[in-house]
Amino acid sequence: KRSINTLKLIMNTMRIKSTFTKAWQLNERHYGALTGLNKDEMKKKLGEKKIHEFRRSWDLRPNPLNRNNPYHPINIQIYKGLKKEDIPDTESLKDTFERVVNYYKKNIEEKINHSKNVLISAHGNSIRSLCKFLFNLNEKQITKLEIPTGNPLLIEFSKNGKITRCKYLDEDRAQDLIIF
């Protein structure tokens, strides 16, 4: 809901009257059994070191979330049209990367290659995953990439799909991109 509301605010501010696509594949990483807990509750349950490992590792998944849990996506209305086997019980950043990049390649890349403007409003780990792909970051670099909340990243592409320029629009709150 947050990223959809953000997108609506951006479109309204820019007076864009276009429709948009809701794509579950761009949703936040599924934290499995940690879903529904805030950071403090997670730290009490597993310890700060383990939570940091889950949040920053490439291929470590938390324990799966029980499918009877009301927080499991199969029990949430917006996922009702999906095949249950497509909905994960838990994800690593690597899993999120695969989901996001597959969607990007099938639904977004061609638009960019045809010089279309694309606005993506998503969540931290899905944006980090997309940046890993676009900027060809390795597993160590992706653990260091910070995505500032609410600071749009403008990426310009050449006609052959190569990145020619990128910058955060609010330079005072910009993070190091570690790529340029």
* Unreliably modeled segments: none
Strand order within the widest sheet? 1-2
Give the rounded overall mean pLDDT. Answer: 90
Count of beta strands: 2
- Could you give a short account of the major beta sheet? 2 strands, antiparallel
Helix tally? 7
Helix content: 25-40%
Shape by Cα distribution: globular
Instruction: Quickly give the structural class.
Output: mainly alpha
Description:
It contains 7 helices and 2 strands; from the N terminus they run αααααααββ. It has helices spanning 2-13, 39-46, 48-56, 93-107, 109-113, 124-134, 139-144; strands at 153-157, 163-168. The protein is mainly α and 180 residues long. The chain is globular and about 45 Å long.
What would a concise description of this structure say?
This protein has 180 residues and is mainly alpha-helical. The chain has helices at 2-13, 39-46, 48-56, 93-107, 109-113, 124-134, 139-144; strands at 153-157, 163-168.
Note the topology.
Blueprint: H1 2-13, H2 39-46, H3 48-56, H4 93-107, H5 109-113, H6 124-134, H7 139-144, E1 153-157, E2 163-168
Antiparallel strand pairs: 1-2
Helix pairs in contact: 2-3, 4-6
